[in-house]
Amino acid sequence: MVPRYARPQMTALWEPEAKFRIWFEIEAHATQKLADLGVVPQSAAKALWDWWETNPAIDVEAIDAIEAVTKHDVIAFLTWVAEQVGEQARFMHQGMTSSDVLDTTLSVQLARASNILLDGLDGLCAALARRAEEHKYTPTIGRSHGIHAEPVTFGLKLAQAYAEFDRCRARLRNARAEIATCAISGAVGTFANIDPLVEEYVAEKLGLTVEPVSTQVIPRDRHAMYFATLAVIAGSIERLSVEVRHLQRTEVLEAEEYFSPGQKGSSAMPHKRNPVLTENLTGLARMVRAYAMPALENVALWHERDISHSSVERYIGPDATITLDFALARLTGVVDKLLVYPERMQSNMDRMGGLIHSQRVLLALTQAGMSREDAYAAVQRNAMRVWESDGKLQLLDLLKADAEVTDKLSEAQLEDKFDLGYHYKHVDTIFERVFGTPVG
After folding, report:
1. CA distances from 405 to 379, 386, 396 (A)
2. Handedness of CA 185, 188, 190, 194 (dihedral sign)
3. Coil, strand or helix: which one is 55?
4. pLDDT tens sequence across 298-330
5. C-alpha separations of 190 from 204, 267, 271, 304 in Å
6. What is the pLDDT of residue 438?
7. Contact 33, 128 (CB under 8 A)
């Protein structure tokens, strides 16, 4: 975890003390259910909860010191708790194995991390919806291969991003449900030394579902899907970030990141206003995507258990969720404060002499009786003259002077094909598909 790219709420979830508190809750809930079943004395569960209700601080350094000797983190924790609680602590961890604690804790942490990420996606979607409505009919050029294609609106660009992140929300909700499982099944997952009712009880208390068959660990296909989902969200973050970076290029400058008073763009060139936030988001997205691969490789564990996944998850659990949380917040800020320049959008559309209307003329010629091949050739030969003039010539003027074209279409008919508003007649329909009801 890099503090520069971390926010307090998500970071706190992965602090050692937070982890140990979840460990204790698992052990205490399990002991409580074992007491209810008559396996251990009620006094054992009471002793644990009585100590817990004093809101004790978790001495992370003391636990680490014990682990330095035991070389086992769960045993170190249990030893430390026993030192605090006393003789009744011997009934903790009855019939359990370390993976019961570790895997269930990771499930809790990832589920809680998902809640924070879902809040972040909600905020991003709200910002996109607001800005999409604001620019619903702001004309701009659509590009394919980076080249002017046909007109769109800036609102449609943002509506597309909203729809993509709305799908991300649905995927993350599903991934959260899949990862939020509890395993308290003992060595090799047979429940030989612990009743399955204990697992059900702990799962209910922690807001999880029971793992149907856990061997000795929760199957890592669940985790692979979870981190793959985070990677997809990161890909969507990068897609929108790259769009902003392109639009901020000097030659384009249709939109740009907010540049605050006192901000500096370059140590050498005082004029610079660089898209540093979205460039940063591109880099962060690469990191989150990188965590998906080791999660996929964790699926193939040996037999009922090995720990080759453990070191991986100590990295990717905190780093992926903390980084993605930061990225979502940063992108929300970019969208919320994005500077949009409609006049520049219009001038960019106009600079290529009306080439953006070529398809309408092509279709009109075919409907007027010309073969598609001949129509394409007629429009293209005039379009190439405009292209090679860098927009100094106007496509409409050249078409009006082309006898083969005017034999099929009158000047008035040609002028009609250059109507910008024609391209926006279904904007409302698209917005209703994306947002369901009018925004605002």
Report:
1. 8, 16, 11
2. negative
3. coil
4. 999 999 999 889 899 999 999 999 999 999 999
5. 20, 64, 68, 10
6. 61
7. no
Token output for 322: 């903390």
Instruction: Answer for the pair 353, 395: CB distance below 8 angstroms, yes or no.
Output: yes
pLDDT (tens digit, 9 = 90+) per residue, 338-385?
A: 999 999 999 999 999 999 999 999 999 999 999 999 999 999 999 999
Length of the chain: 440
Taking residue 440's Cβ as centre, other Cβ atoms within 10 Å add up to 10
Does 439 have pLDDT greater than 90? no
- Buried-exposed string 124-133: b where 16+ CB fall within 10 A, e elsewhere: bbebbbebbb
Beta carbons within 8 Å of 312's beta carbon, 6+ residues apart: 294, 295, 297, 298
One-letter amino acid at 6 equals A
Alpha-carbon distance of 314 to 28, in angstroms, equals 24
Active-site pick, 107, 135, 144, 145: 145
- The 10s digit of each residue's pLDDT in 83-142 is 999 999 999 999 999 999 999 999 999 999 999 999 999 999 999 999 999 999 999 999
Choose, from 43, 266, 308, 371, the residue flagged as catalytic: 266
**Is 389 annotated as catalytic?**
no
C-alpha–C-alpha distance, residues 273 and 257, integer Å: 9
